[in-house]
Amino acid sequence: MDGTILNFYASGNTAEGFANLYNSSLQGLTRLFVLKGGPGTGKSRLIREIGEHMAQQGYEIWILHCAADNDSLDGVIIPKLKAGIVDGTAPHVIEPELPETVIVHVDVEQAADRLQLNLQKQEIDSLTEQITQAHNQAYSGFAEALRIHDEWETIYIASMNFQLADELTQEYIELLYGDRKLERVSRVDRRFLGATTPKGAVDYVPNLTAGLKRYLVKGRAGSGKSTLLKKLADEGIQRGFDIEIYHCGFDPNSLDMIIVRELGFAIFDSTAPHEYEPVHATDEIVDMYSRCIQPGTDEAHSDAIADIKERYSKAMKQSIQHLTQAKSLRDELKEIYAATMDVHLVDQIRSRIEREIREYMVSVSRNN
């Protein structure tokens, strides 16, 4: 029987630039394989094949998707084995904070024809610089979009009944947690709900919330959705529950979802670009607008809101175009590297990692 597969992002293209939450997903690992090598050297394929193999063996795996390339993976974590494999090539910064983590660096680029790469160094450097520039242009655009989004929030914050918002928060603290509490320190996993990619906004909400009681938070920008989630997350941590905190892939300072699997629930911001409607009998809507915002706010500010929406959409569209450009340049770079790679050597590298994982599995089994 195949193991459970959870899909999410550990990094993203945000209004604050490239944002990295890798270390959170790496906490507690005792064996970590860090892959080095340029685009097209086979890192993503290696990660995917090993992940699929481990899932077929019945292990739960976490798939870390790549925000820069919809078809690539950044890593796979096997929680039960406390092991993982990640792409450690820039811009990913892999710095596990726990001293017990044994890091195995794997240079996948050793399977490349170095002479051919050296002959194309000028082209590689040029493409790499152009990719960086395209990403920086995208980040500048996202920052501008966030400033516009702040204008949007201001309208609703001015019409917010904060007392009602506090009452709603307390209501859901009691509903979700009751009087339950664990005498232990929580494990907190910080991730991104989705990401802005070359193909637009992508998320894995259906996968992450499968089998859980789901609360779909509706509202407007500035209607208190993120604040509600932050307070619910803080409450769960204080009560000792393990909690998954999903940050916004656009504004990493905001939260989009929390999951407490021990209590069987997920509560998430269900507005665009990750808008979902109830599809399960147990799904419930939490309407922040109707509960906490002065009635008629939409109508009273319709012209201003329409202008803000138009400017925001334009800024986001232009930024995504820069990501698409970066992806196109990255594809050119991948072709250069791929043409120099010895696929058999890459397969040998994968087999070596799989062998080390098998040996590690045996040692873990003996220790348990």
UniProtKB/TrEMBL annotation:
SUPFAM superfamilies with a match to the protein in the record: P-loop containing nucleoside triphosphate hydrolases
Coiled-coil portions: 105-137
The protein, known as: Nucleotide kinase
InterPro entries from the UniProt entry: P-loop_NTPase
Alphabetic keyword roster: Coiled coil
